[in-house]
Design brief:
Blueprint: E1 2-4, E2 11-16, E3 27-28, E4 31-35, E5 44-47, E6 50-51, E7 54-55, E8 60-64, E9 67-72, E10 81-86, E11 99-102, E12 117-118, E13 124-127, E14 133-136, E15 144-147, E16 156-161, E17 164-169, E18 174-179, E19 187-192, E20 197-199, E21 202-206, E22 212-217, E23 222-223, E24 228-229, E25 238-242, E26 245-249, E27 255-260, E28 268-272, E29 277-279, E30 283-287, E31 294-298, E32 308-313, E33 323-325, E34 332-335, E35 341-344, E36 355-359, E37 363-365, E38 371-377, E39 381-390, E40 394-401, E41 408-413, E42 426-436, E43 443-452, E44 469-473, E45 478-482, E46 487-492, E47 500-505, E48 514-518, E49 524-527, E50 541-544, E51 550-556, E52 566-571, E53 577-580, E54 592-595, E55 602-607, E56 616-620, E57 626-629, E58 641-644, E59 651-658, E60 667-672, E61 677-682, E62 688-695, E63 701-704
Parallel strand pairs: 1-32, 37-43
Antiparallel strand pairs: 2-4, 3-6, 4-5, 5-35, 6-7, 8-9, 9-10, 10-11, 12-13, 13-14, 14-15, 16-17, 17-18, 18-19, 20-21, 21-22, 22-23, 22-24, 25-26, 26-27, 27-28, 29-30, 30-31, 31-32, 33-34, 34-35, 36-38, 38-41, 39-40, 39-42, 42-43, 44-45, 44-63, 45-46, 47-48, 48-49, 49-50, 51-52, 52-53, 53-54, ...
Length: about 700
């Protein structure tokens, strides 16, 4: 079925295009015209103005994510530039002010040679005259130049989207696939030249047999384990992908095809053969060979419905670089034979709204830079809501914004601006919920990140988000150990082996964990925070004397709810439990009795075990039962809950060590009488998993803390 779009001869001038960043002689302001319609989105015509007394004519155009790029000379004082317009993404695609994206494009060359690729994230890319050098624009920044292969070698950019692109090098038969964003390695893979399509972070190429496809994950740099059959029988020389649709053209064939990968059967839609075709979401635009006519075929209903072909333009300027399809849910742009740019609205129903590619660091360093996530969508957004969560404290960031760049949304979290309790080293979850501009559903993108060099987590001496523990040998060597990697960061000698070390948390201006030291004569000291070695020959901060009457110590990030670490101790003679609250003077308040009858118990330690943000107590009775006492946040405890029955026989040291598995949940560490180091993973609900051996040879240590 073929239709010809009705065209009106009337037009309405909306106003002059904004002046260029650098004005000059010979510049005449262009205008924007809108063809009248009957409530439907209307065609927009952009006139670039005049250049040296003649109409300024585009040399290349590209449209992606609602942003139009135009390579043209419109000012003799500044030469050829790449200009950009942001179009309205709903209703009539009216352009905003024109601005310069890249200056001095192919400066000194009479003609601009390559195609310009709209990346969908607001950037445009093209090949430089040097061949292997490729430029990519960026709003608010100088453009980047990426080099693959050898300079001076002819190359052609054949696919580009977001941060990924592919270039062919005909003289060597190589195809380079690389990224624009400075991530190493720049070249992701090198392969023989073939048809190639990039959609999101996936590259598609012909498979090992005719009619088959192979995909490659560009973000992870991994090949597919198998090829995928399409039902076609030839190897394509042109391959494009948008959403669930593939455009497939084979050299020498009388037809081209659309393969619908979103259904099982039927999947193939037959189209006329064309040397120039560009795929959109649910439609394809083809330019007639020799005629310049542009036709659009709507096949959004799939192979079960009859495609509808519409004429968009009787005669457009020839060449693939003079017209463009916005595959990110937008419209069609083309240049007419008089040099005017037409934005033709497309009302074909689009597919689902979703994220194409997510670029977000797995780790953020609190001392150096903020964390940023970039999400490339398959069409522009209206709003995005960004959240950062911690499993203990819940939602830490919840912000909504309408800002976007073409079809890209981003969000930033700068932990340095937050209170120490809200930037504790360790794992966090983030999510971005995006509403599309066309109101057709929402996209939800989850992710995770690890903050390092923030405030110390429980027992986290070096602010990497993982718990550590101390050891003491019979010869007086003390060390700190990292259960995750099995290494130790330091060891010092000269200690009395009877010295007790108590990881304590931070009660000073330094957000790094401290350690309390109880010497055999009952003196209590505090050593500075962080992963610096503790040396018995160095001065220590005196906390008090007379502590040799206590035989069990358990420190928590917070028992009392004031945000400071507290210390729980057991009096050996009476079995009483006493709580020493940490105070604002980096010391301890007088003791408060919080329990009795604790003789014969093993005080395992304290941590927030159930995720309520309050320190809990874990202890093992003489019968081998392990109990959890949930903290109230006021320095007392709730009634006990049984965690294990008949557990811990043959274990010498049992430690609530903090998170050593990387999930943010506190774990248990223990040593048995044979020197095996054992771990029980915390479940975040106050209990633990089965016992795992993670080391051996630990019988040589006098004590673990």
């Amino acid at each position: 079925m073929t239709r010809t779009a009705a065209r009106t001869k009337r037009s309405l001038v909306l106003g002059a295009v904004a002046a260029l960043i650098a004005g000059g002689l010979g510049l005449a302001p262009g205008g924007v015209a809108v063809a009248e319609g009957q409530g439907e989105p209307e065609e927009v015509v952009i006139d670039l103005g005049t250049y040296q007394g003649r109409p300024a004519v585009p040399e290349r155009i590209a449209l992606g994510g609602g942003r139009l790029g135009v390579v043209a000379r419109v000012d003799p004082e500044v030469g050829r530039r790449l200009y950009a317009y942001d179009l309205a993404v709903t209703g009539t695609p009216e352009p905003g002010p024109r601005w310069t994206d890249i200056a001095d494009v192919w400066d000194g060359y009479p003609e601009f040679g390559p195609l310009v690729h709209a990346l969908g994230d607001g950037r445009f890319a093209y090949t430089n005259p040097s061949g292997a050098s490729h430029s990519v624009s960026g709003e608010g920044m100088s453009y980047n130049t990426i080099t693959v292969g050898q300079l001076g070698t002819e190359q052609r950019m054949v696919a580009a989207e977001g941060r990924f692109f592919a270039v062919d090098e005909p003289s060597t038969g190589r195809q380079y696939v690389a990224n624009f964003d400075g991530e190493l390695p720049t070249v992701l893979t090198t392969r023989p030249i073939s048809a190639v399509a990039i959609w999101g972070s996936t590259m598609w190429t012909p498979g090992s047999n005719p009619g088959w496809l192979r995909w490659y994950d560009l973000a992870r740099r991994t090949d597919a384990p198998y090829d995928q059959a399409t039902g076609l029988s030839c190897t394509p020389d042109e391959l494009q992908k948008v959403g669930r649709w593939f455009y497939w053209r084979c050299d020498g064939a009388a037809r081209s095809w659309i393969w619908d990968s979103g259904v099982s059967f039927p999947q193939i839609i037959s189209l006329p053969y064309s040397k120039s075709a560009k795929l959109g979401d649910g439609f394809v635009v083809q330019q007639g060979d020799g005629t310049g006519a542009l036709t659009m075929t709507d096949f959004h209903g799939g192979a079960r419905e009859m495609p509808v072909t519409t004429t968009l333009a009787d005669k457009a300027a020839p060449g693939a670089g003079m017209w463009s399809v916005d595959k990110y849910g937008g419209h069609v742009a083309y240049t007419d034979t008089e040099g005017r740019i037409h934005i033709k609205p497309v009302t074909v129903p689009r597919g689902d709204f979703y994220a194409l590619d997510v670029s977000a660091p797995a780790t953020v360093d609190d001392l150096h830079w903020p964390w940023r996530a970039k999400v490339l969508l398959n069409r522009p957004s209206a709003t995005r809501t960004f959240k950062v969560k911690d499993w203990r404290r819940g939602v830490l960031v919840n912000e909504t914004s309408t800002e976007r760049t073409a079809a890209l949304v981003s969000a930033q979290w700068d932990a340095r601006d937050r209170e120490p309790k809200d930037r504790v080293s360790g794992p966090y979850q983030w999510e971005m919920t995006v509403q599309p501009a066309d109101g057709t559903g929402e996209s939800w993108t989850p992710g995770s990140l690890r903050l390092v060099n923030g405030a110390s987590a429980f027992r986290d001496m070096n602010a990497d988000g993982y718990g550590e523990f101390y050891s003491m040998t019979t010869t007086g060597k003390a060390a700190v150990h990292h259960p995750r990697g099995g290494a130790r960061s330091w060891a010092t000698t000269g200690w009395d082996p009877r010295t007790r070390l108590v990881p304590y948390g931070s009660n000073t201006d330094n957000p790094r964990s401290n350690v309390l030291i109880r010497t055999p004569d009952g003196t209590l000291y505090r050593a500075g925070g962080g992963s610096n070695p503790i040396d018995p020959k160095e001065p220590l901060q005196l906390m008090g004397k007379g502590w040799n009457g206590f035989d069990a110590f358990a420190a928590s990030d917070d028992f009392s709810g004031d945000g400071r670490p507290d210390l729980l101790v057991r009096q050996a003679a009476t079995g009483y439990l006493f709580l020493y609250r940490g105070n604002a003077r980096a010391g301890l308040d007088p003791a408060v009795k919080v329990g009795s009858g604790w003789k014969g118990w093993k005080i395992i330690g304290a941590d927030d075990l159930n995720g309520d943000g309050i320190g809990d107590l874990l202890a093992r009775d003489a019968g081998g039962e392990v109990w959890r006492y949930d903290g109230t946040g006021t320095g007392s405890f709730k009634p006990r809950t049984l965690v294990f029955s008949n557990w811990g026989a043959g274990r010498r040291d049992i430690i609530a060590v903090g998170d050593v598995t990387g999930d943010g949940v506190g774990d248990l560490l223990s040593r048995d009488t044979n020197g095996k180091l054992l771990r029980n993973r915390g479940d975040g609900r106050g209990s633990f998993g089965s016992t795992e051996q993670i080391g051996s040879g630990w019988q040589y240590y006098r004590a673990l803390f």
